[in-house]
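Before anything else, study the sequence and fold tokens given here and see whether the fold suits the sequence. Record follows:
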Amino acid sequence: MLSDQLFFHIHYCNHRSFDDKERPPRKINRTLSHHELILFTGGSGTIAIDKRHYSIKKGMLCYISPGLHHTFEPEAGPGGFLSVHFSCAEVEWSQNQWIIHECTKQLMKKLGKQLMDAYEVEASFRRLTDCWDQKRPGYPFAARTLLQQLFLAIADNVRKQNQNFASSLKVERIVDYMQKNLSKHITLNELSELIRLSPTYLTRIFKESTGSSVISYFNQMKIDKAKELLLDGDHKVKDVAHLLGFADEFYFSRLFKRSEGISPIDYYSKNVHG
């Protein structure tokens, strides 16, 4: 699952469409030091990434991470593609300071995937390349935002293609139930009964879908709400803990510090009084 703490820098975007009369793009044989995402809008041929071969056709999405050798061999005939070249860093707020790591790891599990009903993904990709081409004021920031939206569109498409789509809907139902019951103490057994799945199976599909355990996810939702309540300035730490279903004020404070790097009192003092 793509991290929600990534900051993108786009090197450039490209798009190409060609018909029978035009020469197809030349053969490419290279290794990049940054990431590349390609969506083929038509055509034929092959693309090889890290010795794995994929057929070029409409809806084929390819991801190339830094350092992976790849070749692109298009065949004559109509076709086209959309691409974006980018670098990224993982930005983390910890111990009251920003920590930045360059991200060269593989962002997507599969290097090549044939998307079904890829209309939304293609539309999102075209918004990105159009933004880059037009170069209107503020386009670098807008393009980074559109790249994030593109990754969300891809994730949504892949999720719908997944055989466990029904399970994904159950996870969404669990998250919605959590959101409506932030003031309560909810158990794993309670959630399992809600969607009629065993606790073990629920734990597995929830982790696959969100990257977190059920309880960790729920606690983070509570911490996010706690920050909102603290910044309102009308609640003491003990009151906030009680409003969010924590019987133990000190346990709540430990969870808060583990998430934000500082205690609830320090968070209030720093953000309200400066």
